[in-house]
From TrEMBL:
Keywords: Cell membrane, Disulfide bond, G-protein coupled receptor, Membrane, Olfaction, Receptor, Sensory transduction, Transducer, Transmembrane, Transmembrane helix. The lineage of its organism: Eukaryota, Metazoa, Chordata, Craniata, Vertebrata. Pfam families: 7tm_4 (PF13853). GO terms for molecular function: G protein-coupled receptor activity; olfactory receptor activity. This is Olfactory receptor. CDD domains: 7tmA_OR4-like (cd15226).
């Protein structure tokens, strides 16, 4: 997609999180550690699920895909943000800005739908346990996964369509640490009020639909198990707790970023950091701490690794 001929802006300036040199050094150190934690944490889940045959189930197939999306979501802007903490001039070329916006909405939309797929998986596992492996067949899993990425791609493409032929001929300062679509559209040399509403409506509609589907699925699960024995009910809630926590952490920032009408960007920056960095960090922690199977598998892999060292 080529930019319109009358666009003269070739790069954008990112203001980042702070202008304080001291804070930027602290941010550089802190976010470097956090990003390393994101990559290592999600890779640990991937390795654990792949090398432990007991985890070769539909739930963990979806979980490793969530880990892949989380690593990608944290990587579309975070490495550049970390490097920019050491730079005085934080610039990004137009194509780089466009790529950041595209991948943010692609990965965000895909993760929303993947969370819905995981909720469906939990519904089948809890409410129809005897038919779980039959219903959640490899064919169904592939269909759920492809549907998630397809929705993410369609959503991202529809968002990027709003950027076509927009003239950028003057201001090029983005008050954020990455190119956020609503902020970039405002820099166009024309009235973009309607486009801004469409962008928010597009993201808001997808978020609302996914959230309602998740709400309905969890409500049905809780309603279905309410008459079970206390032990069965406790197990169901224990299984759901990690998923509900992840869903809450993922959707809460979306609501504040795209729906809540803040007049300044300072709060939006905080939620953008949480959405793109801390949620991908917390997901592996939540699924590890709340999942006995994953913890047991990790312990088994660690023991096997230690024994192999002693053998050598």
């Amino acid at each position: 997609m080529e930019r319109a001929n009358h666009s003269v802006v070739s790069e954008f300036i990112l203001l980042g999180l702070s202008k304080s040199q001291t804070l930027q050094i602290l941010f550089f150190l802190g976010f470097s550690v956090v990003y390393a934690g994101i990559v290592l944490g999600n890779l640990l889940i991937l390795v654990t699920v792949i090398f432990d045959s007991r985890l070769h189930t539909p739930m963990y197939f979806l979980l490793i895909n969530l880990s892949c999306i989380d690593m990608s979501l944290a990587s579309f802007a975070t490495p550049k943000m970390i490097v920019d903490f050491l730079r005085k001039q934080k610039t990004i070329f137009w194509w780089g800005c466009y790529s950041q916006m595209f991948f943010m909405h692609l990965l965000g939309g895909s993760e929303m739908m993947l969370l819905v797929a995981m909720a469906i998986d939990r519904y089948v596992a809890i409410c129809k346990p005897l038919h779980y492996m039959t219903i959640m067949s490899p064919r169904v899993l592939i269909w759920l996964l492809l549907s998630s990425y397809t929705v993410g791609f369609v959503h991202s493409s529809s968002q990027m369509a709003f950027m076509l032929n927009l003239p950028f001929c003057g201001p090029n300062v983005v008050d954020s640490f990455f190119c956020d679509l609503p902020l970039v559209i405002k820099l166009a040399c024309k009235d973009t009020y309607l486009l801004q509403l469409l962008v928010i409506a597009d993201s808001g509609l997808l978020s609302l639909v996914c959230f309602l589907l998740l709400l309905v699925s969890y409500t049905v699960i809780i309603y279905s198990v309410r008459h079970r024995a206390a032990s069965g009910l406790a197990k169901a809630f224990s299984t759901l707790s990690a998923h509900i926590t992840v869903v809450t952490l993922f959707f809460a920032p979306c609501v504040f970023i795209y729906v809540w009408p803040f007049s300044t960007y300072s709060v939006d920056k905080i939620f953008s950091v949480f959405y793109t960095i801390f949620t991908p960090l917390l997901n592996p922690i939540i699924y590890t701490l709340r999942n006995q199977e994953v913890k047991a598998a990790m312990k088994k892999i660690r023991t096997r690794h230690i024994n192999s060292k002693h053998t050598l």
